[in-house]
Amino acid sequence: MANSELIKKIEEALEEIRPYLRVDGGDVSFVSVEDDIVKVQFEGACIGCSVNHMTLKNGVEATIKKYAPQIIEVIEAS
Fold this sequence. Notes:
By secondary structure, the chain is of the alpha+beta class. It has a single domain, classed as GMP Synthetase, Chain A, domain 3, CATH 3.30.300. The chain contains two helices and three strands, in the order H-E-E-H-E. The protein has a three-stranded mixed β-sheet. The termini are far apart. The model has no long low-confidence stretch (mean pLDDT 90).
């Protein structure tokens, strides 16, 4: 899959999960993808949230993998 196609699928996945994050005053944005590892950045209320690691793995990562199964992992950009 071409990189632009992959980025489009990642963005589609993030659009699916954003409404759930926005309910609690948060958001997530795509930062980069390299070697099938996606970096995202939490925003708003998600910054420093005690459950954001669980949200990252169970929500964001699972949704991105549904759209782009070749993704190995989703990590938070530092």
